[in-house]
Structures are given as C-alpha cells and as structure tokens.
Amino acid sequence: MAEEAAVRAQAEAVRRLKQDKADPDEIAKEVVKLLEMKAQLGGDEGKHKFVLKTPKGTRDYSPKQMAIRERVFNVIITCFKRHGAEVIDTPVFELKETLTGKYGEDSKLIYDLKDQGGELLSLRYDLTVPFARYLAMNKITNIKRYHIAKVYRRDNPAMTRGRYREFYQCDFDIAGQFDPMIPDAECLKIVHEILSDLQLGDFLIKVNDRRILDGMFAVCGVPDSKFRTICSSVDKLDKMPWEEVRSEMVGEKELSPEAADHIGEYVQLHGGLDLIERLLQDPKLSQNKLAKEGLGDMKLLFEYLTLFGITGKISFDLSLARGLDYYTGVIFEAVLLQQENDHVEEPVSVGSVAGGGRYDGLVGMFDPKGRKVPCVGVSIGIERIFSMLEQRVEASEEKIRTTETQVLVASAQKKLLEERLKLISELWDAGIKAEVLYKKNPKLLNQLQYCEDTGIPLVAIVGEQELKDGVVKLRVVATREESWTNSINQANKMALLAWAKETGIDLVQINGQRRYGGPPPGWVGDPPPTGTEVFIGKLPQDVYENALIPLFQSVGKLYEFRLMMTFSGLNRGFAYAKYSSRRGAKEAIAAFNNFEVRKGCAIVVCKSTEKCELSVDGLATSVSRRELEAVLRQVTEGVLSVTLYASPCQKRAQLAVLKYSSHQAAAMAKKTLMEGNMRLGGVDMKVDWLNPDLKQKLQFCVEKPSSSRVQGGKCLGVPKQAPLSPVLRNALDRLNTLCRRQYLGTPLFLTKCVQANSNGWLRFWCRVVIPGCPVPFSGFTWVRQDGRGRSGHEEAKVAVALQVLQILGESSHGVGANPLPFPKSWSVSRECGPVVLLVLGGPSLAGRAETLAPRQM
Q1: Eight-class DSSP state of 119
Q2: Mean pLDDT, residues 635-652
Q3: CA-to-CA separations, 729 to 380, 454, 797, 814, 841, in angstroms, rounded
Q4: Residue 185 — φ and ψ, nearest 5°?
Q5: Does the predicted TM-score (pTM) go above 0.70?
Q6: Three-state SS at 758
Q7: Which helix (H) or strand (E) holds 92?
C-alpha cells in the first residue's frame, strides 16, 4: 500500500510540473522515475479486468432519449396540475417493515439493503406505500398529490418491453373522505387525458372492484384463506390463457375443479352498464353483500364516466384482479391495444401502461390507532410508454432536438471573439437561450452547420460591416432568410424573434402598432363584445410581446394584443389586450395593475375606454349626411353612424360625429382621415376623438327647445320629430299578425321610462318577449308624445315593434319603408321616427339595442 501511495504522489508531482510548464528535461526526469516505480509494482497481469456495462435491468439514457422523456413528463405533469394536485417526495429507501406484507406474492421482488447502522432497509417497491406512510406519520387526512420518482423491483427484466428493475413511476392520488366514486371517476379521466394527449394509439381502460372479486370467489366456493392466492392467479389472465390459469389454480393452489370452472364462467365476462345490470340480477352474486356493494358502486362510477364522456374507452372486466394486497375497492388498468406499425415487421405491444385503484385501509396499517384515510390513485407506467415512443422515433428517423438553444452567435470574419462574447452575454442577461462555438476564429460555414446539426433556428452574425453600421444580421437557418436589427435594445429584439419562431405566433406591424390576433388562430364566431379590452400603461420601452403575451394570456384567452411602437423599434410605453370575455379583462386588471414586469417597473392595467367616436369639424354646410357617409365608407371601415350638427366653434360650418364598430376601426379611420388631408365642399376637415365635454355639450343642446336655426354659432341644431304615419302606428297589429302566422305566440311588451327631457322627449327601456324566440329583444329608444291621447309607453311600443318586424324578416310593405336586408352580425339603424340601433346576434333571432340620441331628420 505504501508503494502505491508513493506512485500516486510521484504522478501528482509530474502533473504539477506540466501544469507549471517546468523545464522539459526536469519533467522527463520525473516521468522516468514514475515509470520505474510502476515497474517495481508489477505489470497489469494481476489486475482485475472491469466489464463496462450497466447492472441487469437498468440502462443509460442518451440526450435524445432524455428529450423524449421530458416531453412525456411535461404532458403528465401538466395533466396532474390541471386537476389541482400538489407534489411531494419521499426517500428512495424505507424501513423494511414499512414495505413488508403490502404486496402479496410480489413481496419477494423487494430489494433489501445491507444492514447499515442497525436499521433494516429496503428500496421502495412503489410510491403508494411510502405515500400512505407519509400520511400516517404527518397525520394528513386530506390531500391530492402527485409524485414522480424511481422505484426498484428484483424482477426478471424484459428491456424491449419496458420492464426494468429500476424505473420511474408517475403517481396521482386523492386522499380523504368524499362521496362515493367521484374521486375514482376523476382518476380514470386523468388516465384517459394522458393517454389521449400522448397519442399512443388505441387504448382501453379495464375496471373492476375487489369486493366483486371477493364476492365472486365466495359464491364459486373458494375458501377464504385462498382468496388472495387465487386473485393472484386471476391477475395472470392478461398474459396466460384461461386453461393455464385454471391448471395453476387446481394443480398448484389445490382449488377444486368445480370452483375453478365457476370462476371461469365469470372472469371471461366484460362489458359496460348492461353487464353491471345483468350481474345485479345474477341469482348468486346478488345474494352476496360484498359483490352487491361493489356492483352498486360500479354502476355509479359508470354514470359519472358517462358525464365525462369517456365510457367508449372503459370496459368492466371481471378478469382484472391486480395482485397487490392493499386494494379494497375499485381497481383499474389501462392497456394499449395491439396495432400494426408501418415501419417495423412486428406489431408494437407493450401491454399495461397505467394501473391503480382504491386502498382505504393502507394508511390505517401505519397509524398507531388504526385510523383509516380513504385513498384512490393511479400510476402511469412511464417506462413502457418510453419504449414505445423510442421505437417509433427510431423507425421514423424523426430528428429530435436535445437542446433548447434559440440562437447561435456567430462571426463572419476573424478576430471577433470579443464582440461575440459581448453579444452572447447580453442575450443571456435577457433570458435568451444562446450558444457560441468555443473557437477564437471559427469558419462561418462550420457555425451554420452546427446549427443545422443541432436544430438551432436562428443565427446572429457579427461582421466588420455590421459593427460599423451598428446592426446585427439575423439569419433563419431553415429558410436562410436574413434581416437586420439595430443596436437599440438588440438582445430583447432577438429574444422576441426567437420566441415568435419557437411558438409560431404571427406578429403584424401596421401604422405604428404591432398586433397579434384579432382574431387569433382557431377563433370561431364573432369578435368579443365591448368591455373586454384593457389598457396597459407605464411599460418599459424594451419589453416586448415575448414577455407580455404569455403574461396576459395566463389569466384568460386573448383575442387580440396590440403594442404601440416607435420607429426605432422601442415600444411607446403602452399596449391594449382584448380578451375573449369580460371576465378575462377583469382578471387581468385584478392581477396585473401595479404588477412589476421587472424590479421597480410597475405597470398600469385598467379598463380600456374603447373610444369609438370621432368628431369632424369645419364641414361646409352644403355637405349632406349621405354624401359624407358615402365618402367615409370608401376610405374607412366599420362606420356605424354619421350625425351632423351645427359647428359649435365655426360659423356657417357643420360638425359630424362618426361612430365606428371598434376602437381599432376608429383609430385607423382617424389616421386615414388626418393623413389623407381630405376635403369636402372645399373645406378642410379637422378630425379628432370626440371630446367628452363636447359630447356632453351636444347632448345638452339636444335637450334645448327645438330650433332649426343656429344662433351665433353657439347653439346646436335640435332634431325635429318625424311624425309617424298611420301605417307605422299599425306596426303593433302587424307584429301580432306576423307572430300568429309564424306560430311564435303573442308578443309581450315591457316598457319603462328612464329619462324625461323638458322639451317632451322621453327615453324608454323596452323589452319584447316572443314565446317562439329563445332570447328576448331589448334596448332603449327615444319617443315624443304626439298629443293625440296616446301615452309615451304606447309610442315606445310602436317604435320597438317596427324594429322587431324588420329583424323577423317582415317585408315592411305598408310599414312606411322599403325592405332592408339583415345579414348576420350586421348593425342596422332606421331613420323613421324614434331612432333605435339594433345589433343582430348571429343566426338566432335574438337582438340587443343600443341608444342613439334623436337627431335632426
């Protein structure tokens, strides 16, 4: 031993001399001395030859294989978290007495460890028994948890079928006292979700109940002492034919042939609710208390599974036994159905890929007072799933990325190592996954080839000309498209580009704003209603969509996201996020107002005003509403209404109020009208958002006594009432007639006066309920009593009846107007009498009304 220590010391001395770059002669002298010392110890003939291999039933995993595993783990963990599970961990070994007696005949597969410090230990066989010990030790009576870790079994491995001695288990368990079968149904739903998401092919989830099995054994004449051992034999039916299982029962386990034959009649049955109903009527099973309880719960389970919509993949199978001793109720097992594979000669079959059940008594085994905690859980057979996916990838020659690198920093010329390192440092600091080749002067071709080989999507190329211009060349490896980004906020811009490439999100930049969605991919239906957009302010100018969209999407589905941009590529400090529902907008305000997107940078999030109205002042008095509306429809989109007033600021001029379908449509119209320098009637138009004060002034002037003249340019025109023709007054009768003809029932009108002005105008809220229409019509309207004895309520009914006639498709002949088409989701306004805006709601007959102030006709 002293000689070996001297050799090691001499070897260390040689290494030290080489590190210090000592004189070559001195190094050579010490090397000769080292070789002499080794020669004195003897040659290699006495040394043990090592065999480089992994232990039986274990394996190494290459980066490619680990990438596949990570994909699968992500699917499983996402599902567990979606169902509200917490995560725990336990030691890889337990006290031997903790594991003993919990696994029936499989207890012989437990790995026992050598005595260390007076404790007899064993490697964990599964994750369920340690979980039960954890509950009892910590006095936990209610938890929903998942646990992913390695377990160990001294089994005969079958590596090609995913059967190992060391392997992962992915467990999901619900512990606690709950109503029957609800947690059990959720466990089966989780198995269904995971196998569907992994796209492994066709699968079947078999279910049974230990109480049904025990009741079946009892009525078949199996002695109580043989229940567990016979259950273990039945559990082999998925691997062996019935004849061999029967032979084992009779020959090895000394069961009577008659009892075995009775068991055979039952265990070959499988089906669904119909089989459960049949067994509930079975003259033998129906008399057994345990079997009857199990069948009742199984019926309830299938009712819940029907609500989940997964019974097509569930089979009630009396041959399912699962040999573990601790199961007390429902048991289940998922198997992949054998399928032909186009790439290999043999069909892929890896058998069971998930299993689980209810174990109400296991926790009580560890509790000093025997207190029970009901539990149900499922374990995903991850190794078998890995084996199948690896075979598929190998057969298809699919290229698997083993890194997540987004961009490679490359150089086009020599002596640019410093610039490359500076740039990659910026990218790392910005959170971008980036690499650089570890050579001072790598060839550009080699750098691009490295990207091809490893699947890196982007290359940031630094060259002498780029340095002079203050830009970086970005190249998309797959398409070889190139673009340049300036030096302002360079790192975050590249992060944005890499994120967009990775996620496939399409960002469109138009007129100073960059937009996502509106609608997003896969959107079906109409745009979201008003009140779904939020304003985002006080943004740092170097924060982009790669940080903002995931953040705001975390609280609700985004319909559209717009970031206001400067010409230099910085954002202007504010953005708009439009959600698919008002709830999403409220959640965003609650979660992100005063939220720090980075330390010390709190943003403002509030309800967007969604301004949709513009004011156009300075119009010539000769311009008519129809002429203005025609021009606007040619150059802008989304015009809903145009209202003309006498200008409050200029003599002999008009002011127009333009209402658009959305804030974005109004903003684009404002930009178009301002940049277009449009002229109507020889007068320049001055376009701006409709000022709230001006809007209030317009409304106030409308309430002034009626006057068609403008006095001193201070008072606005007031609308004249358009008298209703006798035919229009007959609208109520026509609506009643139409509803009777179409078998819709008699309309019911609800009206309520909500505002009365001094000049006689009344504002009513109205609702029309037609029995044959699924949703009522409702909205606001302005009316004025005509002095002929009819109340304001009657006038409101007439006005609303006219609009409902139009929506129901009445031709309007004899109603005082030409017929109007009403395409789905179009906005409709009529200029006869009281003004009401009705917005159709898709294919149904339902509508809603929004108020328009009465205007001059």
Answers
A1: B
A2: 84
A3: 72, 78, 10, 11, 27
A4: -65, -35
A5: no
A6: coil
A7: none
